[in-house]
Amino acid sequence: MTNSTIAIPGDKQKSTSVFTLNDFNSRSNLTEKAQLSDDYCTADHRDPAKSQTSMAALMHFLKSSLGTGILAMPMAFKNAGLVFGLFATMVLGFLCSHCIHILAKTSQQVCKDIKVPALGFAETVEKVFENGPKRLRSWSKFAKLFVDIGLMCTYYATGCVYMVFIATSFHDVINYDTGLDWDIRTYIAMTVIPFLLIGQIRSLKLLTPFSVIANIFIVITFSIVLYDLFSAPFVFSDKVLIAKPTQLPLYFATAIFSMEGIGTVMPIENSMKKPQQFLGCPSVLNIAMTIVISLFVIVGFFGYERYGDGILGSVTLNLAEGTFLGDSAKLLMALAIALTFGIVFYVPSEILWKLINHKFNERYHNITQIILRTAIILIIGALAAAIPNLEPFISLVGAIFFSLLGIFIPSVTETIYLWPNRLGCCKWKLCKNIFLGVFAMCALVAGATASISEIIEMYK
Taking every annotated instance into account, which residue ranges of this chain make up the domain Amino acid transporter transmembrane (predicted)? Predict the structure, then answer.
């Protein structure tokens, strides 16, 4: 929680605005200055000492989007086919970008309406319901809690995926090069140790250096992966162009998981010195998503073309074992994902703490947070050890959580905020959001069903 005190000329007393720049559950109080202002600018009421530049925000956005997901895109193309996957990935990237845009835009507009410096994801949904149609106002607390719980489940589950990915990478390299025969669960247990330290960082600004280093590692890894992909002649004749309809739900579930970074959007926007630069053209969002979608298409298309049906949950795991480039790519990507764990773990932990901190004596808040974060990381490690297989787990997380939070909730939120007279000519925004909502529900049901069936079959 950040306390910023703003002095108003002519007043004998200072007015205090209390808000958190970086989490989803900040409680932002109106300031006298804000209430007196006709043209409220959120940037003027944020603490510059605890804000970050647009470049730092871009680094965080790229890092949160370019995790294990992009490495799973060749597997997504396997379930889509080359042609369908190519066009579907570009369309899905546009839809995800649009949903991020409408969420951030709605949040900024609500901030100006109620004159607060920043609102998190859950807060934005809550305020929209509170000021929406009368029949929906009583649902505001439930809507906020729903988003909070959804975000916690999403990012803790993503932490499990990260842990399995890192452990698998080290398992493949070390076991092959040294002749050891350690089980994957041994490496998961070893991965928990650095996570216990990184997971104690509670400031998004302090995580910026980690994102920069991780991005450097990712660039090197992508260079190695692309070199490997283009090192042999392409053979398209044996590749599926359009997959069977029964495989498409797995494609959408994996692709949505890979692209969606909805949970980190509002913390990043809330922490910017110039939040107006998050949207617009050019903007942090446009630049980041253009880079992300381009890389997703390239890695997915050529990754599947190179390895075909033998593609694994992460394309780096298909690199030749025992070679310098192959081992370097696996280890560098594993380290990049480890450095990313801080921002992924930051999101749900801040949500959970805001929900329960009032239950503990303020003197013990620090030690309580340390114990709580440690316990959660140990639980994540136990879950990762229970399901040490990336493919179906990635699809399941994407199908359930990212379909809801990344597509369904933003479209519903924008509709309620604009209701009833600001939905555009012939209410085209309403029609657009109905389409997004139906698409999200179809992706959720079909993707979850296919993923669960695959997990059951795997454990048979």
Answer: 53-448
**pLDDT tens for each residue of 67-79:** 667 778 888 898 8
Asked if residues 116 and 30 have their Cβ atoms less than 8 Å apart, the reply is yes
Degrees to nearest 5, angle at CA 156 with 207 and 190:
75
What does the alpha-carbon distance between residue 78 and residue 161 come to, in Å, rounded to a whole number? 20
Beta bridge pairs of residue 52: 272
* CA Rg value for the chain: 22
Stated length of the chain:
460
pLDDT(453) > 90:
no
Helix pair 140-178, 365-386: axis angle to 10 deg = 60
Q: Are 324 and 162 in contact (CB under 8 A)?
A: no
Of residues 51, 27, 31, the one with CA closest to residue 274:
51
Q: Which residues of 353-369 are buried (b: 16+ CB within 10 A; e: fewer)?
A: bbeeeeeeeeeeeeebb
Q: What is the pTM of this model?
A: 0.75
- Phi first, then psi, for residue 200 (nearest 5°) are -90, -5
Q: Could you tell me which residue, 367 or 42, shows the higher pLDDT?
A: 367
Phi then psi for residue 3, to 5 deg, are -105, 120
Q: Which domains does the chain have, with CATH numbers?
A: 59-459 (1.20.1740.10)
Task: Provide, rounded to the nearest whole percent, the portion of the chain with pLDDT above 70.
Answer: 86
Cβ partners under 8 Å of residue 284, min gap 6: 54, 57, 58, 61, 268, 272, 277, 278
The tokens describing 65, both together, are 């989007």
pLDDT digits (tens, 9 = 90+) for 178-191: 888 898 899 999 99
Q: What b/e readout covers 29-49, taking b as 16+ CB neighbours within 10 angstroms? A: eebebbeeeeebebeebbbee
Tokens of 181: 């025969």
| Pair 114, 28: CB distance under 8 Å | no
Does 417 score more than 90 pLDDT?
A: yes
CA distance 284 to 56: 10
Place of tokens 């990012």: 155
To which residue do tokens 């394309």 refer?
Answer: 315
H/E stretch holding 19 reads: strand 15-19
Distance between CA atoms of 389 and 458, rounded to whole angstroms? 9
Point out which residues pair with 15 in neighbouring strands. 6
pLDDT surpasses 60 at 33: no
Contact between 354 and 25 (Cβ < 8 Å): yes
Residues pairing with 295 in the sheet: none
Who contacts 455 (Cβ-Cβ below 8 Å, separation ≥6)?
387, 392, 393, 396
Rounded distance between C-alpha atoms, residue 112 and residue 208, angstroms: 28
Which tokens belong to 224?
């190695």
